[in-house]
Specification:
Elements (H helix, E strand, L loop, with lengths): L6 H13 L5 E3 L10 E5 L1 H18 L5 E7 L5 H14 L5 E7 L4 H14 L5 E4 L2 H13 L7 E3 L10 H6 L5 E4 L4 H12 L7 E4 L2 E4 L3 H8 L3
Parallel strand pairs: 1-2, 2-8, 3-4, 3-5, 5-6
Antiparallel strand pairs: 7-9
Helix pairs in contact: 2-3, 4-5
Length: 228
């Protein structure tokens, strides 16, 4: 079972295992070539689309003119970043008078906070921050909070981990307006790895659907996705 951090460096190594007759399950992030027996991941393009729809509805419902959206992207060159970006941009690019400012936080909260500090200095108007994961969204929130501007904008993240430090708790506490549950793939990956080891036929891919979490359903989601 392999869960790539970056696709390019590990593809050749995984191919060697596959060519040697070893069964391979790839989790979460795809490789440059499908040199595995099965892929298990979440629908990142759908996450991006749902985020774009949520942001668009917020802008329209609040009648915000000339809206400014900050997008804090994950590590460039990774598939989740590309799909979470493109899914949202496909929606926002169809909206009139919406400006998107993109920067890269590489999935890291401290890096996103530092980048957001610079963006705040250069932009007196920001309406929405969309970060490709919750830690970056929280980093952007703290940058805005420290600048006394957190009430001017909403913050949208991705992952919705449970527990006291996860994204769902940040929604409950009001730091994030919304996050999107990214289904963990390990349990399904292990199940199908066992099936492959037994010689059973498995599907080529299993794509798991995300879930939108806002203040309305955050308490229920916290109980559902938090692990004791």
């Amino acid at each position: 079972i392999v869960a790539p951090n970056e696709a390019a460096p590990i593809t050749a190594v995984v191919k060697k295992a596959k060519d040697a007759g070893i069964k391979v399950v790839c989790l979460e992030r795809d490789l440059v070539e499908p040199v595995y027996d099965m892929f298990v991941g979440a629908n990142n393009a759908k996450i991006g689309d749902m985020a774009g729809q949520f942001i668009g509805n917020y802008i329209n419902n609040n009648r915000i003119e000339n809206a400014v959206v900050v997008e804090m992207r994950g590590l460039l060159g990774t598939k989740p970043q590309e799909e979470r970006h493109q899914g949202a941009i496909d929606v926002l690019s169809r909206m009139p008078n919406v400006k998107v400012i993109s920067d890269v936080g590489s999935w890291i909260q401290a890096e996103a906070q530092k980048r957001m500090e610079t963006i705040l200095q250069a932009n007196p108007k920001i309406d929405v921050v969309y970060a490709h994961n919750d830690p970056m969204a929280v980093g952007c929130y703290w940058a805005a909070k420290n600048a006394g501007r957190d009430n001017e904008m909403i913050f949208v993240g991705v992952d919705a981990l449970g527990g006291p430090d996860g994204g769902i708790k940040h929604v409950i506490d009001g730091r994030l307006a919304c996050t999107f549950y990214y289904p963990t793939c390990a349990a399904d990956g292990l199940k199908y790895a066992v099936a492959l080891a037994k010689g059973e036929v498995v599907p080529e891919a299993l794509i798991l659907d995300p879930e939108q979490i806002t203040a309305e359903n955050a308490e229920q989601a916290y109980e559902k996705y938090s692990i004791e």
